[in-house]
Amino acid sequence: MARTRKRPPGAFRTLLIGVGVVVALFLVNGHYPSLLKLAELKTFDLRMYARGTHKPHGEVAIVAIDDKSISELGRWPWPRTVLAQLVDALKYYKVKVVGFDMVFSERDDIDLVRDKILATLKKSGLPDNQLTAAVGVSNDEAFARAIKDQGTTFVGYPLELGAEGDGSRISPGFQTKIASPPPLSYNLVRLLSPRPAPIIPEAVAYLPNLPVINNAVRGTAYFNTPTDPDAVFRSEMMVIKFNHRYCAPLILAVTSAYADGALTSLTVADYGVARVAIGQLGLPVDEEGRMLVNFRGPAHTFPYYSVSDVIAHRVAAQKLANKIVLVGASALGLGDRWSTPMGANFPGVEIHANAIDDILAGDFIERSEVTAGLERVCAAVMGIAVSVAVAYFSALWSGVATVAMIFGYVGMAQYLLTADGLLLGVLFPALTGVGVYSVLAGYKYVTEGRLKHYYRHAFEHYLHPDVIEGLIQNPDALRLGGERRHMSILFADIVGFTSRSERTAPEELVALLNTYMTAMIDIIMRSGGVVDKLMGDGIMAFWGAPGDLPNPARSAIECALDMLGELDRLRRTDPRFVDVDIGIGIATGDAIVGNFGGKQRFDYSAIGDTVNLASRIEGLTRYFKVHLLVNRQTLDEAAEGFIVRNIGNVRVKGKAQAVQIDEVAGRMGGAVDPAFYQQFASAIAMLEKGATTEALSSFEELSKQRPDDHPLQIYLERLHSSNGNGNFMSRLNFLRRKSGTADASRHLLFELDTK
Question: What is the residue-averaged pLDDT of the chain?
């Protein structure tokens, strides 16, 4: 019979606690965001590294001051004439834009010597043109001329960031006034609020390039790159405010020049940077103006060419033509190496190369309010989903569900990062899932421990320990109060116990009962049955509740036969049981089962018509003088495998309709010989066909084999008293006409007031 599955006890309370934990985690994360920030950055590094290498788009190349160049051209710093040769070579290669990731704020050492020589020569009175011809142009001037001749060279400069414009910490050489020409700033700045946004980084000074170089280049731009709290470079700073100017970074300057002077624009709101754009392309920046770098891979993912090879024209022309060339240091001894998500010892110039490649390709990692909001939504959904899983599933399955949800979210976040460049944080949602599961699992462990103790205490006298464990694992099988279940009910009584108790000392009687009950209860519990009541010498048990059984009827019959077998063993081994006999009755059908009584005292029991019927059937064992009787429904549901005799239709007390009753004599293949019961069934078949004489003869033959078989003697008595045509035959013919068939189950009707 199908039943509606009930929710586990305390499920709603568990769910509410889970929601409370989710809210608490959100409040803590909102008030203390730095608690997870560093760990989230580390997970970002792992995810970037796990993503692997993406091939650059090919517009950026790096000309490196590397160990090879130093070995060929001499120790760094080189004379500026060497750099002039480099710029001339880049012009020869038709490089579109050149960006120097370095500052030229000090004069060339050779020029300092030249100035001393020139000062000495001036004392001789030679005219300036002869002096210049004698010493030549300075290295800085030669470098500046090469830069001006190339036409699209940008050089960098550093900005010194201060705390609220504190000028007391300005480093030597840095200046607070802007030299002419000024550093590059945004072409267009929109201020959406009259009040400046304090979150935007502000510099207190900068280190300008030499005037001769500053006037030769197409522009100067800062190359400051911000680090996160763990000293790892993950982003580029796209705007720094200095002297009321919104300065542009070197990467944006060279990219704009490569895009034929694309307009750079900045929008500032009261909360910080609202938008940074080059042309029509908006760059994904946060309120501070930082743009995450979408690293293409580990160091040297971009093409590197040695300065010495470029000057010597050992590089194929197509490698550099129409490219952006960044000139920077990569030699280990020069120190321009940093930690990034793709590893340590990452050349600083390649950080800029990655950022420029991102802008040119429009391929970014986007971390915005939208992605942050989606992350929070996923964390809330995961927390509630884990709460539901823990509340309604077992510890194992809720744990599996939690792990599956966490890995599913991490997989989704990694896919969005790899495929679409959307950065969803994974740590807070994952910790929300783990935190909610841990709290609720601990809560359920404590509360279910108490509940399991209650179940064990309540049922340890009724059920086998295996059945109790099944209930503990599935408490939904126990419904306090009562529920309708399809069950098999067994009653067993000792025959003649009242007369025995009158002639036996109480102490001996109690000892006998204890031995008998111990043996019988053990058999019932092993079969998965529940011992409902012990009524003096009587036992009531049932199958099919509180846990489910595949076949309660078969379990009940098997148990009854084992009880009879155990009694037979006791007769052989214990003299007290020599004359002890029992009768067992089983009925199968619907009954109400549950805890009945008050809060202080209750019994787990079954009530209903099926229970009453089982009691009446057990009483019939006295009348028919057999050991085990069952109703026909029990036999039908138990299936084959038993030696059975159909007793007939019996009208028992309290039932308006007659009930079909069968005797179960034993198991097929057991100690009981089925031949007698087969011959009995054949005689019944003759009787139903109207062959009364043949049936009578068959019954008499069987009577010789078993003269003490009481059901057989009842048939013979009625057949003899009716002489084949009396009341018994009239009743039989009436039943045939009424049913329209010679149904073997209607061959006899005992109208009895049973026990």
Answer: 85
